[in-house]
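> example.struct
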């Protein structure tokens, strides 16, 4: 089962999409399996990180800016090579186990869509593979 979600982003940021992925799992009826969350864009990504203290994701953005600044030597004519670089570092998908009908995430973990070259109209997909709850005999 494939679920698609549109997303309007800001200039840059980590957007918590955990609840949307949970909804996809619920809709699928899968009890035991895997969810792949996929970002089909080249200047945005998907990752898992802390969803308790919002300062964590703002620190990550700051560190990514410092580590991968825009450079004069970049040749890409669109002028957003730093955003492409950050998207590759973060990655374009995550896999999360589904057990007992629920996503297996740590207590402080959330799933994030990461924007590096917004604002844009974006989307992400959730593919869910697995078995329904076993029938009782
Ligand atoms: Zn580009």
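> example.seq
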């Amino acid at each position: 089962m494939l679920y698609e979600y549109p997303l309007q982003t800001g200039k840059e940021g980590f957007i918590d999409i955990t609840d949307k992925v949970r909804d996809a799992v619920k809709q699928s009826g899968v009890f035991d399996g895997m969810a792949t969350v996929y970002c089909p864009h080249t200047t945005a990504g998907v990752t898992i990180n802390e969803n308790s203290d919002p300062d964590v994701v703002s620190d990550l953005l700051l560190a990514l800016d410092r580590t991968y600044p825009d450079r004069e030597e970049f040749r890409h004519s669109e002028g957003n090579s730093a955003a492409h670089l950050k998207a590759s570092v973060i990655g374009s998908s995550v896999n999360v186990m589904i057990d007992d009908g629920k996503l297996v995430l740590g207590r402080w973990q959330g799933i994030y869509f990461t924007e590096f070259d917004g604002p844009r109209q974006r989307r992400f997909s959730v593919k869910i593979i697995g078995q329904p709850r076993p029938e009782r005999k």
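> remarks
The chain is about 25% helix and 40% strand.
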